[in-house]
Every structure is written in C-alpha cells, then in structure tokens.
Specification:
Elements: H1 8-14, H2 16-22, E1 27-29, H3 37-50, E2 52-57, E3 62-67, E4 86-87, E5 96-97
Antiparallel strand pairs: 1-2, 2-3, 4-5
C-alpha cells in the first residue's frame, strides 16, 4: 500500500483493513522496548507532545509510525499538537489521540 493515497478519507472509510483499525481497541507503544517501563512511559508521553509516536494495534499486529502534523516542504518545524489532538487528562492512565 502506498504511504499516501489521493482520497485518504474515502480509503479510510471504505476499506475493511482501516475499518478494523478504527474500532476501539488496545494499542501499545513500540518504541524503546529494551528500556525500563517508567522510561518508556516518559518517552511515549514526550513523543506524543512532540507530535509523533510508534504504536501497534495488539489484535491485528499492525504497526504504525505516527506523525500528527506533516512537515512542510520548506523544512520548517512541525506544528506541536494542542490538547485537542493529544489529551492526557481525559482519562487517568490513558492518552487520547485525534488525527488533524
């Protein structure tokens, strides 16, 4: 599958693979597996605040490298996500991510 498709919303809404991923399910952070749990938590939180993360959907084994906001062609820094997109306060022990 190509990294970018012309009509992303249509692809996401109509393809069975993406419909499975859109259901509420357990995901896990896949970065720094060799590090202690507390360090991994801190790295995950920092990465989310920076607008990126590596996660896996447990049920399907699908791994994704997320970039919440794309870099622009001029090489400027990525936009840092607000609480609207990365919400650590909604439910204790969880983070809610919203695609822009």
């Amino acid at each position: 599958m190509p990294r970018v498709v012309p009509d992303q919303r249509s692809k996401f809404e109509n393809e069975e693979f993406f419909r499975k991923l859109s259901r509420e399910c357990e995901i896990k952070y896949t970065g720094f597996r060799d590090r202690p749990h507390e360090e991994r938590q801190a790295r995950f939180q920092n990465a989310c605040r920076d607008g990126r993360s590596e996660v896996a959907f447990v049920a399907t084994g699908t791994n994704l490298s997320l970039q919440f906001f794309p870099a622009n062609l001029l090489g400027d820094q990525r936009q840092v996500p607000t609480r609207e997109y990365v919400d650590f306060e909604r439910e204790t022990g969880k983070v809610y991510l919203k695609a822009p």
